[in-house]
Amino acid sequence: MNTHIPVMLAEVLETLAPRAGGAYLDGTFGGGGYAEAILKSTDCILWAIDRDPTAIARGAALMARYPDRLHLIEGRFGAMLDLMAQAGVSALDGIVLDIGVSSYQIDDPARGFSFRADGPLDMRMGNSPTSAADLVNALPEKDLADLLFTFGEERQSRRVAKAIVAARAEAPIISTGRLADIIRGVLPPDRSGIDPATRSFQALRIRVNEELDEITNALEQATQLLAPAGRLVVVCFHSLEDRIIKRFMNEASGRTPAPSRHDPSGLMARKAAEFRLLTPKALRPTEAETAANPRARSARLRALQRLPDTTRRAAA
After folding, report:
1. What confidence tens digit (pLDDT) does each residue in 111-132 have?
2. Maximum Cα–Cα distance for the chain, whole Å?
3. Could you tell me if 139 and 222 lie in one domain?
């Protein structure tokens, strides 16, 4: 069953503003929702990256409909600079990133991303050497607690880690269902209705796929690839991701506080900003969208544009 619904699609298209003859990159192809909408909107060229081989295989049908305009590349979006260079591309008019796990991955129990159906405790988006089960069964208790706190913002991380270590002493934890039950056994139901296992599963997924490092790399490389007036549009779903994106875009657009008058660096001329922030405040999905697609409720969209008169650094 196809449950993929592109989040904030109208807002993404309006902000990206693809134009005829332009060159664009969808760095997180996933179910192809953004890619298809971009290709339908105007006569442009689109490259699309995904680290998940199944997403690339699934995209073959869409590529067949746009044989000269859609180019699929298997790889990490955090390596987009090298991937685009290999494709002979040194400048893009727009880049869109949808950060996080795709609906296809969540809804397939065999991928081990979700606790809603029992499956192997995996969580790998691509060909990462380490699975969630490897971390859960091998990390020392303190390291496991730190992981859950850092990447899941789980305030009861020590309690969860202690329960996991006790349970794995009886038998290895190899299924999503068992891990979720262990967590639910030590955490009370959340008053918001969010499953107690949510934050721990998020933390493991982010760590397995090195997602925060990927985001940092992707943002830096995207700004190097943008042509004058090119736009970067990023949709994310968690505060950890959003803080990274917000800080990066504020710095790139020169929206950072001036140094204290007691700081010697304040005597130095500040570098002129090369980018304009298109979203001083993150855009959020409409009530109608969240009602139709509850997975959109935590989405935030931020965007940046290279100024028309700045010189883009060579990308290849």
Report:
1. 777 888 889 999 988 777 899 9
2. 64
3. no
